[in-house]
Write a structure and sequence with these properties.
Pfam families: DUF6597 (PF20240), HTH_18 (PF12833). By secondary structure, the protein is α+β, with helices and mostly antiparallel strands. Helix content is 40%, strand content 19%. The strands form 2 sheets. It has a 6-stranded antiparallel sheet. The chain has a 4-stranded antiparallel sheet with strand order 3-8-5-6, with no helix packed on it.
Length: 282
């Protein structure tokens, strides 16, 4: 059977890993060299993930700092509040492990504030054993065989992770309910004072609860416009609980470095159906 030019697949984790992993995202492409490679924008996200490039890593362009970066074959993505333009090679196979809130801090055993302003982190520095996983992956493996290799690694890695805290549950709820949880309620769920909540949230995610809520709302607006590019920006602002369009424009400029009009060009020219609502699944 002829290999499709490209496809995206979402795979849930095994029951043993659900405490740590939200889902796996696989992407394969095998595009003829005489065609243009796939290139598209990736909005900021409160999600952390591990990324394995089985074959041919991508190139990232930071729209705010204007910097370019060729990714290594195994990458850790922590706090990310910037828009990236991603350019994929003609032939590539990548797997992202989307982590539950707080898990990256638990396996690294460090505050994620230390990863702020680092676009992506080469695993050689803090999780060098990720490279061993890359050595066992190949383009010829089936999707489930590749997931099996990664799950075996994760089962060992997560056994050594620090214990979960109540704030981890609260942060997952903050995302699942699209940022519509008050800080006071998050503190109650976490059995913390508001000040303790902010301190633990910074340690676990690199950001404050209010900043995460803003980012989640922006991601919702981005996803909505990506899925329905014909929607007016006024309608998007209303559906995403912005008080007015001016606040939406402010968030677009802060999180993406572009205004909604410039973003419209991206939405009208996406090479893939990238939008999904997995971020907000309960």
């Amino acid at each position: 059977m002829e290999t499709p030019m490209h496809y995206v697949k979402i795979i849930p984790p095994s029951d043993l890993l659900k405490e740590f992993v939200r889902y796996f995202m696989l992407f394969r492409s095998n595009i003829p060299n005489d065609l243009k490679p796939i290139e598209f924008p990736l909005p900021p996200s409160p999600e952390n993930f591990l990324c394995f490039y089985v074959e041919n890593a991508a190139e990232l362009y930071n729209s705010i700092s204007k910097s370019k970066e060729k990714q290594s074959n195994s990458v850790i993505v922590g706090p990310n509040d910037k828009l990236f333009q991603i350019k994929l090679p003609h032939r590539t196979f990548l797997i992202r492990v989307i982590l539950q809130q707080g898990v990256l801090s638990r396996i690294l055993k460090m505050p994620l504030t230390e990863l702020i302003d680092i676009d992506t982190f080469d695993s050689n520095y803090i999780l060098p054993d990720m490279r061993k996983v890359n050595d066992r992956l190949s383009f010829d493996l089936s999707d489930m065989e590749a997931i099996g290799v990664i799950e075996n690694y994760l089962n060992e890695k997560f056994q050594k992770a620090s214990k979960p805290l109540a704030i981890d549950t609260a942060l997952n709820q903050l995302i699942q309910f699209e940022g519509r949880i008050r800080v006071d309620d998050l503190a109650k769920i976490s059995n913390l004072s508001n000040r303790q909540l902010e301190r633990q949230c910074l340690y676990r995610t690199g950001y404050t609860p209010k900043y995460i809520a803003r980012m989640v709302r922006f991601v919702k607006a981005w996803n909505l416009k990506e899925k329905y590019p014909e929607l007016s920006w006024t309608n998007v602002a209303y559906q995403c609980d912005y008080s007015d369009q001016a606040h939406l424009i402010k968030d677009f400029k802060q999180f993406s470095g572009i205004n909604p009009k410039q973003a419209q060009f991206h939405f009208n020219n996406l090479p893939l159906d990238l939008q999904n609502d997995l971020l907000f699944e309960r």
